[in-house]
Specification:
With 226 residues, this protein is α+β, with helices and mostly antiparallel strands. It contains 6 helices and 13 strands.
Length: 226
Amino acid sequence: MELHSVGENAMMLYLGEQTSPEVSARVQAAAAAVESALGNDLVDLVPSYASLLIVYDALATDHLSVAHRVHNSIRNLGEMSNREGRTVVLPVYYDPEAGADLEAVAERAGLDTDEVIALHTGVEYRVYAIGFAPGFAYLGEVDERIATPRLATPRQRVPRGAVAIADRQTAVYPATSPGGWNLIGRCPVRMFDPDADPSMPVSVGDRVRFEQVSRNRFFELGGELE
């Protein structure tokens, strides 16, 4: 683990060199420990794949104090990182009308669409990072048989709730936006709602499992097809 200054009121804590469930667990544990150690002096924490950005109030504390408290807080990180995140089940309507690239993903993999769905729902994914847009959770890793490169030309408009694959990552688009991932279905759950508490159903370190639902059930859960 390494701690570096990255600004007048920010530090980056590096907890590994590559993405893995173990490193993700350390990031989650470090975030909880640092939040407790810095208290009101903390402005923001931004966990990522193998690092943690720490933003502090430079008017209330200083670099040396923050560094000292961060180092002390992560001394027993190995024990804390054994704690598991929550498991969140997200319903998905898998169908070409909901996922424009479902058949293309299947064809590329030499599978039928039912096999793609079975492989996508058969894995428990870890939330490695949240970024790109509020609520956009990067989940890994998909079965290598359905790992699919990003589109050569991104779409200008991907609908909210689109479930997608890019390489060995999968995600749910939290809002309508441009995007170059392969769309395989649609999720009715809102991945970001600023009026809700919490505003996102998942956090870094949580585990996500996708569950196939019928078209009717998708609409019953509040899903929309454009």
